[in-house]
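Schema walk-through. Below, the input block comes first and the output block second. Nothing else is stored per chain. Lengths vary across the set, and this one has 249 residues.
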Amino acid sequence: MKISFKKYLLASMLLVPVVTTFSFKPAAAALTVIDLSNLQQNTLTAARTAQQIQNQLAQIANQVKTLTTLPGSTFGAVKGIYDSNMRELNTLLTSVQGISFDLNQISSQYDQLYPQGQWNNMSSGQYSDIVRKWNTELANAAKIAMQGQSVIQRSQGYNDEAIAILKRSAGADGEVRQLQSTNQMLGIVSAQLGGLTENLSTSTRITAMMAAEEAQRKEAATAYGQKLLRGMDNQDTSNHGVALPDIQQ
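--- output ---
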């Protein structure tokens, strides 16, 4: 089975999905049916969103600078809040594995993880090694997803804290015009952060990896089973119901 969207699949790793619970099932059990045409479009969108995220981070930084009209103490507090948020988001983006805009490199990495049409030439040991690679990749995706969840949840807290500081400052100074201007700027900054976290949360990395893993597992299971029936590696094939290695949680 050949998956036509392999060049785009690893590109989806640029983003981080919000995944709180999920499970990986053995080959004998069927995963939820996934619309591959829709998945392809989602991964393309995720890849294109990567540059948009970088642009949004730059815009947020510039907009925070416009808050210099605030009193010194208030500006320092608000700027510190948003600086912390942006540092966390930047760290999150750079920690995502599989980042590469070189499609040739992406294709090569994908072929190594999900080899096409090579099952008939593999021994049982080689097959087990491929399964271990699948397990590792899925585990890494899950880890980064949880990191993304934590950062995104904190973003709203940053916004709330900044709004509270600005309201207290405006009340003390009694400058209605400054309050209106500040609220408008804060609204822009908050909207940018909201769009950024939404882009992060709607990534399809986990879904894409599970879809590819399941497709390749089915192909591998068929070829591997046929090899066993023919007595691959001089194994005893008198017993029925050969069990493939499970994907570990």
